């Protein structure tokens, strides 16, 4: 997508700064691009974008009343405190709440639980630190370093060359290349990891990335990209049923699925849709599995090429590709897109049935797959059923606890960063003033009057920093 790629930084010059020392940059220049000193006059939208295609994408967002948002937050806190019971007995309610949109203040924690990454992290205590301390394969380290500045360069978290966002991105991607050396690193993993880092700490982002690569999209990032090619054939077969006009047009001009859907699926639409829509798609995708990606792709194809009037201007392959690269805004609006996704009759059974059909055809024409990936899990319930967690692994355990400056010192546990600077990292990764410890079992309330002067005014869609700024 020409315009989107430029806005997301694919055409930016390569970075010459090395982050091999665990991703820690050494530059102390005053260049804003290096140090991330965003000028005061720069407008930052509620998602953290300072420019590019994603800035002001809130125009595509649904407006949720504050009272409704607070109610949703309380409900999600209740679910997270008894996650195994909700998933076992009230999974449809969890799915329904994901479809409505996870509250921004709890999105990172919810993604961690939905993907099973919380359990994976608890079962592998110390693993990320072990990988983080290793130097990494020089082949992959070099490629990762060159890709860092291309990931959402207009987001305040990743704007700084060698800044904390790029450092954490380097750590997560390097750790995965060590965790799965047979796969190494694939460029499409970088935007996935960047989206995760916007919502959670590096260790959590790493384990969610692991789950996405192994459970949701197995084989997508392996050499040869066979899994994505196979899913392209599945998408094409489903399109024949959903929109015969669009299917005939693509066949007529010999437009293979891999040409238009590779970035859509491998980046989970994070480089395609407005940000409000990206987050809603991810909420549903991490709950219900890959069928959501198929539905989004089918909705976009049907909307752009679904009638004779729409395909008439597309006289050839080039014109059709340009049309799919410039999706009309009304089709990407959050409320419209979510409605169409939920209405589209494509189920896990449909996908699995077509998967077996296309796999048989692949073997007949190309032989066996070279990549032996694990079976795909269709969402949170399937993951939990395959690997039932213990209550201990689901227990919410704060990883950052900072004493209130108004309370007596009690030797509370702090991160090294918090001890050294007296600051914690908020959900968007930025340093914020010390906060009171938050009890996740109690719905958020207004901060004490004595702490109100410390509250950072943020988006009206999320809790203030003083109310809820602790990773759990």
What does this protein look like?
About 50% of the residues lie in helices and about 0% in strands. The chain is built from 24 helices and two strands. The protein has helices at about 1-5, 30-35, 65-80, 85-90, 90-100, 105-115, 115-125, 125-130, 140-145, 165-180, 190-195, 200-215, 225-240, 245-250, 255-265, 275-290, 290-305, 310, 315-325, 335-345, 350-365, 380-385, 390-395, 415-420, and strands at about 425, 430. A two-stranded antiparallel ribbon has the order 1-2. Mean pLDDT is about 80; it is low at about 1-35 and about 410-470.
How would you sum up this structure in a few lines?
By secondary structure, the protein is mainly alpha-helical. The protein is built from 24 helices and two strands.
Salient structural properties:
472 residues; mainly alpha; 24 helices; globular
For this structure, the quaternary state is single chain
What structural category characterises the helix and strand content?
Answer: mainly alpha
Strand order of the largest sheet: 1-2
The global form is globular
The helix/strand series, from N terminus to C terminus, equals: HHHHHHHHHHHHHHHHHHHHHHHHEE
Count of helical segments? 24
Largest sheet: 2 strands, antiparallel
Indicate the mean pLDDT: 79
Rg, alpha carbons: 22 Å
Number of strands: 2
Beta-strand fraction estimate: under 5%
